[in-house]
Amino acid sequence: MTHPLRLGVNIDHVATIRNARGGDHPDPVRAAQIVASVGGDGITAHLREDRRHIRDDDLQRIQDATALPLNLEMAATEEMLDIALRHMPHAACIVPEKREERTTEGGLDAAGLHNTLAPIVSKLKNHGIRVSLFIEAQERQLNAALKLGVPVVEFHTGEYAHAHLAGDSERTQRELRRIADMSALAAKNGIEPHAGHGLTYENVQPIAAIPQLAELNIGHYLVGEAVFVGLEQAVRQMRELMDEAR
Which of 42, 122, 166, 187 is the residue whose CA sits 20 to 30 A from 23? Predict the structure, then answer.
């Protein structure tokens, strides 16, 4: 049985544009409201250590402005844990974060960071926050997620997206198989698999067709398209492509 596929929209880069000039425009809250109005299933926002896009006060404003569940992407730090417990988002996705990177460059090493992650995962879960780990589609990382007891993993699709963009069909298929195999294994072990990073109109459908995936998180591409066609149309088109693939 194929399950409905949710679309979580990451609105970070609306805030990136706002912050380029300072002030309040464009407001990521307005983006969240548009996503809600056109059938998006959730809002994702990554509060980074350097506050380069989403700012602390954005989180509460987003939660107040829409009934959509908020998925807070966060580094595994005490500061971010405190913020998560203060705002109580629906979900918290723990991601790797390096100050110098432009965007998240790969999955979290859940296997190598078990002792760091365990108390953070435990505290989030104890407060009723749905915890996810952003990991590579690798059995070692999935096993680590199982040991940590998280209900959700989000598989990093960046390598798949790079291979697709490069026109390397062999590597594209290999990456796609890896994500599909790990999604099946996650579901078999009671973990809900999600996926995201670098997904576009051109490459989303093979990922969306993986039957075990429950949610895709897409942001940068949609905000980029919104410059040309508006956010409403960009989200609608992505939603249609995802639905077609199912």
Answer: 42
Q: Whole-angstrom Cα distance, residue 195 to residue 129?
A: 19
pLDDT beyond 60 at 197:
yes
pTM: 0.94
Q: Which of 13, 53, 164, 197 is catalytic?
A: 197
| Mean pLDDT in residue range 13-38 | 96
| Rounded mean pLDDT, 160-164 | 97
Task: Identify whether the C-beta of residue 243 lies closer than 8 Å to the C-beta of residue 40.
Answer: no
- Catalytic residue flag (residue 136): no
Ordered by start, the domain boundaries in the chain are 6-245
Q: Which CATH superfamily groups domain 6-245?
A: Aldolase class I (3.20.20.70)
| 194: annotated active-site residue | no
**Catalytic member of 13, 53, 73, 192:** 73
> In this model, does residue 97 exceed pLDDT 90?
no
Spatial CA neighbour of 124 closest among 146, 144, 150, 98: 150
CA 126 to chain centroid: 22
Residue 125 DSSP code: H
Active site residue 197: yes
Give 195's strand partners: 155, 216
* Weakest mean pLDDT among 38-42, 94-98, 112-116, 167-171: 94-98
Residue 96: CA count within 13 A, CB half-sphere: 19
**Looking at 46, 53, 156, 164, which residue is catalytic?**
46
